[in-house]
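Notes from the 1:1 (GR / supervisor)

We went over the backlog. Supervisor wanted to see one worked example end to end before approving the batch request, so GR pasted a single chain during the call. The sequence is below; no edits were made to it. Supervisor asked that the structure be written out right there so they could see what the output format looks like.
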Amino acid sequence: MAYKKSKEDPEWKEFISPTRVQRQLECSIDDDKRHQGWLYNCSSIDLFELGASNYPLYLLNIRIPQNRTLCHMKPQSPNCQLGFISDLRLIEVHQNGGFTLIWLWLKTLATPAVVASTMWYSGRVDGLNRPRRLIEKAILALGWAMAVLDCKKWSFGI
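Structure output shown during the call:
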C-alpha cells in the first residue's frame, strides 16, 4: 500500500510494506450453470481497515498468484481452482475530518444534556410519595446508561 499527499505529488510513498495474507473465499454456483460460462457468486471478505485517512490518495496492489507448474502437477493446489477473474469489487468506507468534528461537537453538547435531564427526572421521581414504578426505573436506567456511554465515547474519542 502506498500514498500520495496530493494529486500534484510526483511519486507514491510506501505506507505498508508488502505482506502475505491468506484468506478463504467461499464461492458457489448452481450446478446447471456450471458448464454454461456463468460466474461464481463469492462472499465478501474484509480486505483491510485504515484507522484514519491521513492522506487523500491511497494505492493498493492486489496480487492473486497462481503457480501454473504446480497446478499441472497438483490440480488441488491453492488458486488452481480459481479460474479466470472477470470482476473484482472493492468497497471503501471513508470518514473525513468533517464527520469527526461534527461527531465530537454532538458528543460535547449531548453529554451534559443527557446527564442533566436524567438527574432532573431522578429528582422528580424521588419527590413522589410512593416507591418507584418499573417504568420509572427502566427510564432512569436507560438515562444513566446513555450518560455513561456518552461520557465514555466523549472522553476517549471512540
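Supervisor's comment: The first strand starts at residue 2 and ends at 4.
Batch request approved.
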